[in-house]
Structures are given as C-alpha cells and as structure tokens.
Amino acid sequence: MVLSRIWTVVSTNWLREQIGSQLKASKKLRILDTTFAYDRDVDTYKEGYQLGHIPQSVHFNIFKCTQSTPEIPVNLPEINCFTDYVQGLGIWPDTHVIAYDRSLPQAAYRTWWMLRLYGHRNVSVLDGGLRKWLEDGYDVTTDEPEIERSDFVAKLDKNLLRSYDDVIRNFETRREQIVDARGEQSKNVTDGILV
After folding, report:
1. In Å, how far from its chain's centre is CA 91?
2. pLDDT by residue (tens digit) across 44-66?
3. How far apart are CA 119 and CA 96, in angstroms?
4. Which domains are delineated in the chain?
5. Keyword Repeat, does the record have it (predicted)?
C-alpha cells in the first residue's frame, strides 16, 4: 500500500482494494471497529463485533483506559494505559488506521481524533461505516485477525485540545471552526448500541 497523503475519509471501495486477497492483517493497515454504547454495561465486542465485522478489523473499545464523569461520559484515556492498549491492537508508527462504526460516525471520528491527539497521524474514517460496506455488497466475517504487538508510544499533542475558555474566546475571534460530530440522540443516549 502506497499513499502519498492520508485522507480523513476513505471509501469502502478503496478499503476493499487495500484488503484485496490478503489472508492476514498487515502492519501497514489496521482496521478498527469503533462501535460503542454510552452504557458501559453493553458489551459491544460481543453484541457487535463478534456478530460480524469488516475482514481484518479488530474491536476498539473507546472506553478503555478512561474514567467517566457525569459531565464527561467518554473522557480521554490515561496515556500509559492507552500506549499499552494501542500496542496490543498492533498499531505501529507507520500503520494506516481505518476507523469505522456500525451506523453513526461519532465513534469513528472520536477514534480518529483520539489517535491524532496521542500522536498517530496516519488515520482515516471509513465513509458510511459498516452500513455502507454492507450496502456495497462487501462481506463481513466473524474471524479475528492475529495481531503482532507494536512499539507505539503515545505522545499527547496539546495543540489539538481546547479548554472551555478557548471555546468561549473563539466565539468572539472566530479564528477556528468548531465541529460537534454528535447527533442529537447521542447527546442523551444512556443505553443500547447506536444502530
């Protein structure tokens, strides 16, 4: 796989071509099923990923290494724990990561941002996620790929963080564009996987 540029969004056709006829997952490409539910008691690994996923993808738990608060249900992961977790997912410094979810794109974009926040720039989101993959007639599998542990080390990029005061100040200066990827229902979902 040769990319001169890492696109923010990639198509299902592009991803299918990258997977091609490879029987094994490659260090160069890691596909993450990022589907999650706000209710931490819902096991999206069993109730989503294990039922069928894009070939060569691994389950990504967005809650791994995090502590929720009433104000922040999906907080940032602790950096050392996140380093260990990402190493276990087989994401190497030069791995192109593709994040997708089962329906709504919030989890995939959150994963895209979180990986970038912790220093991994080679990450894209699958346009339309699993739903589009299936609509395009591509197969899913229940097979789980064998993954070699990587040497990834998370490094926090504070340039991608904004405080409450930064956001308020930006309303006046309008220097940065603010995008809230959450849908209305996701702001108040308390249980169940978003499908």
Report:
1. 12
2. 899 899 999 999 999 999 889 98
3. 13
4. 9-188 (3.40.250.10)
5. yes
Among 187, 185, 6, 172, CA closest to 95: 6
pLDDT > 90: percent of the chain: 58
Q: Label residue 188 by pLDDT band (50, 70, 90).
A: very low
If you average pLDDT over residues 99-109, what whole number do you get? Answer: 89
Gap between the Cα atoms of 167 and 185, Å rounded: 23
- The strand pair at 57-59 and 29-33 is best described as parallel
Rounded CA separation 148/13 (Å): 26
Residues 6+ apart with CB under 8 A from 92: 27, 150, 151, 152
- Which DSSP state fits 39? S
Question: Partners of 53 in the beta sheet?
Answer: 141
C-alpha to C-alpha distances, 119 to 28, 87, 104, nearest whole angstrom? 17, 13, 25
